[in-house]
Amino acid sequence: MNRKRVRNAVFYIIITGGALLSTAPVLYMFSASLMRKQDIFGMPIRLIPPEVRWANYVDIFTLFDLHRYFLNSVFVAACVVVFNLMFSAMAGYSLAKGTYRGRRIVFYFILSTMMVPFTVIVIPLYILVRDLGWLDTYWALIVPAAMTPFGVFLMRQFIVGLPDDYLEAARIDGCSEVRLFFSIVLPLLKPALSALAIITFTGNWDSFLWPLISISIESLKTLPLGLARFVSAYGTEWHLLMSASVVSTLPLLLIFVVLQRRFIEGMSGLSGIK
Amino acid sequence: MRSRYSIFALLITTAVVLLGFSGVIYAKTELVYWIHGYEPAVVANKEIIQQFEALYPDVNIRFDYVPHDDFETKLFTAFAAGVGPDVYWIADNVFPQMLESDMVDAVMPSAFGVDSQAEFETLFEPGALEAFKVDGTLYTAGISEYNTLSVYYDKAAFREAGLPYPSATEPMTVAEFIELGQKLTKIEKNRRIRSGIEFEWRLPNWISQTVEPWVRQLGGELVDPETGMPQFDSEEVITVVQLLQDLVFKYETSDPAFVLQDHVEDFAYGRVAMVLGGPFHMGFTRGLKPDMEIGVMPFPVFEGSPRVTTKYSWAWMVNPHSRNRELAWKFAAFAATEHQGLWWNNVRFIQPLKGKMDQLIEAEPLMETFVADFEYSKYQFSSTQYYELAHILLQAVSEVTSAPVDVRQVMERAQKEALGAVGL
Amino acid sequence: MLSYEQQRRLWSIIFVIPAVAFFGIFYVWPIIQTFWLSLHQWNIVSVPKYIGLSNYQNLFTSSQFINSFQVTTKYVFGSVIPVWIIALAVAVLFNREFRGKDMYIMLYYLPFVVSLTVWCVLWKIIYHPSFGVLTAVTDLFGFRNIRWLNDPRLVLAALIIPNIWKVMPANMVILLAGLGSIPKEYTEAAKIDGANSLRVFWHIILPLLKPVLLYVVIISTISAFQVFTPAYLMTRGGPGSATRVLPLFIYENGFQYLRMGLACAASMVLFMVLMAFSLLQLRFFGFGKEG
């Protein structure tokens, strides 16, 4: 009994230490977001703001219109997530349970597009989007991100693990393939969809280069472009950058907290043992 | 189960409808105008745009400002797709590249109410436009930001060290400058608290701007203006790069690792005593530290060498393929020649309109040194491979200032790379 | 009238069509164009001029490219291997029920949700040799004036450390999920047979974890190869060219020197390398043999 208690204590000490270590930079970011600009940088080194300045959080919205960037980012990321879930689930189902020939090739084809460095395809992509007439519209931000190879990979791996008997039973009952997908497969995919939602949302939230070049009107700009306004060749608003970044982190954190359990369950689908 | 996928459907429909609304169609004539983002300049530009739209009610100007470091990327991508802006800013150093790629239009004198290019030139300070002139043709609507580099110093640091303020008009020698730098450097318990001298170590154009005037004082050139040949392994260049290395390791007045992001920001907060800076830094420094006592002295000169400083500009350009070329020129002319006051008072950028420089000194006495330094200033070397050459120089400087390696050897390697860059 | 089987096949083909069309248009078509451009001299605005394989030839004789390639390789292995080890260790630690588990997972996950741009800027402040927070820590151990981002010997590590911090949590969560799906009976049976924990881990858990490990290994390798933001924001490839990773090389050549043809060739090389690596990893994990 006593030994168990000691082991337990050691366990908690270890994971708490790890947690402190991994959150330390984030805590510092939060602390810096409440400092005055000159406190972040100077002697003595400060970990805690000498005077707490919540006004930074007001300034980012009044001086820099952060809410507009924020709403754009939320809208774009939400659309991207919806499209990703939909199309990746469909493709994943087809690649996992389809009966046509060549699906392995199609799968490898999609997998191989993961290796494309974005910097390079940016110009051909830009020209394509221009030809579609999407520059300076939400389309430019949403459509090229509507699917990712990761998404299809994840879905396919998860669906492969779903028991065939279950699907067959529904088929025997005369269930059409479309209905089968929507009313039986999709609900089973909830955990995997949660995982994909988190990954896609987080991935999209940070994208910088593409919105930078494809959007030239203020009203459509996203959060990373907004953050970039705090850093310029003529000086950096360190403290405001930190506050803005705390704010920009919140939606991601919220989504993770809400979907955390399902996320972990969803990822376990990858192992294909279930 | 059903309700779940109807939520899906609903979300998608909403997305599609919202997207449909985003394409607003303008009936007005539209001009696209891009600048790099500097908050005061953005505000001033918005005002100019408003005035222009009031004068031309059927014109709509679509204005965008882009983070400084990513500005060229955005500009080039748009030009690659044939959708470059009608009016935009560029710096003198990328001009040759832009001209080669047919991205800049020859000046349209009528937009300025003059009859010829020669007459247009007389609107500006002599020599101000020369970086934008090739084979006798001018390619700019005017300069948005006219700069030379002088030295800002922190008067408080001088008082603390018991040093007299330097002359505002007579340049000191490089040796004197170093000595001052050493006296102003503060290192406590092996930790640097204040640098005597710092530069912008991070950006290729800044390194080239810093090295080049000193090289020219010694009679050399970074790039031969006649042949376009880089001279990175010449004695003059090696001497100057050696000087930068010595500042870091021998005299310990400077340390690239000490500059966080912007050397002038460090200056404003008392972390650096002397910095190379341009006139535009005045507004920036005062914005950060309104009560700071700033002094300005001329760019230091090697003993026995002639006075040479650097000059660089950002300028308004017009896209030669603009669908509304004439209107684009009118707007560029309006912005470039009719708002010097607004530009100076709110942005602290100099528009070098002829005969107006004295007014700047009246408004800000410290400008005297800059105006004097302009007389000795020369634009940077001109090359279609400017960025690549400047970057090779930066890499070399960065290498010799991060470890005490042999400068000559590094510069010889840099020269080889530079020759490759210009295709020789 | 189609038979049931035919209908089923038809629908599964219809289901995959959006994906094929999408990846064809937005990924493959740009790659084809990139390949085409890699055979040309192109300054972005001019008409591309065909020059055959010259760009590739120039690349392989360019010391800058070779340097970038080496730097990238060092960066990739330097960052993915610690990430795998730490992520696996933490996942094993978390693979049990205890009070506050969800909260702990969230705390570990926190760095992952911070914007990468801000993360890099933050670490630049942390690393500052005089005023950085890390300096206060290294001082305790008697190290003075460490120039993390300006010392050619330390700089790669200085880029790798923040990356481990940020990437580890995502991988950890995935591995944790994988561990959670391994039925307890497997490991318990082995323990009854007298195998020690290490042997159980090595001979039972790891093999069962293979598919998840595969996902983690492939995806973290690919994204490490594509590293751009940290090098761009924290060091600009310096000091000298000690952190000039391949994506930075590509960006600078393409967008700053306007040597787009060369940049495209470099990208094709990166593409090929990633393909080779991924195939190797797939083989190593015996993927595609069964099923």
Task: Please give a structural write-up.
The complex is a heterotrimer of chains A (274), B (424) and C (291). Chain A is mainly alpha-helical. Chain A has one domain: MetI-like fold, CATH 1.10.3720. Chain A has 14 helices and 2 strands. Chain A is flat, with a radius of gyration of 23 Å. Chain A starts with a helix and ends in a 6-residue tail after the last helix. The mean pLDDT of chain A is 85. Chain B has 2 domains: 29-146 and 312-364, D-Maltodextrin-Binding Protein, domain 2; 148-311 and 381-421, D-Maltodextrin-Binding Protein, domain 2. In chain B, strands 1, 2, 3, 6, 12 and 13 form a 6-stranded mixed β-sheet that branches. Chain B has a 5-stranded mixed β-sheet with strand order 8-9-10-7-11. A two-stranded antiparallel ribbon of chain B has the order 4-5. In chain B, a hairpin with a 2-residue loop joins β8 (186-188) and β9 (191-198). The longest helix of chain B is centred in the N-terminal third of the chain and has 21 residues, at 2-22. Chain C has 291 residues and is an all-alpha fold. The model of chain C has no long low-confidence stretch (mean pLDDT 87). Classes of the chains: A mainly alpha (274), B alpha/beta (424), C mainly alpha (291).
Q: Which keywords apply here?
A:
heterotrimer, B: D-Maltodextrin-Binding Protein, domain 2, D-Maltodextrin-Binding Protein, domain 2, six-stranded mixed sheet, 17 helices, 44% helix, globular, C: 291 residues, MetI-like fold, two-stranded antiparallel ribbon
- Structural class by sheet pairing and helices of chain C: mainly alpha
Instruction: Based on the coordinates given, report the CATH architecture of chain C.
Output: Orthogonal Bundle
Number of helices of chain B: 17
Nearest-angstrom radius of gyration of chain B? 24 Å
Specify the oligomeric state: heterotrimer
Cα separation of the termini of chain C:
32 Å
Proportion of strand residues of chain C: under 5%
User: What's the domain count of chain B?
Assistant: 2
- The appropriate CATH architecture of the largest domain in chain B is 3-Layer(aba) Sandwich
Number of strands of chain B: 13
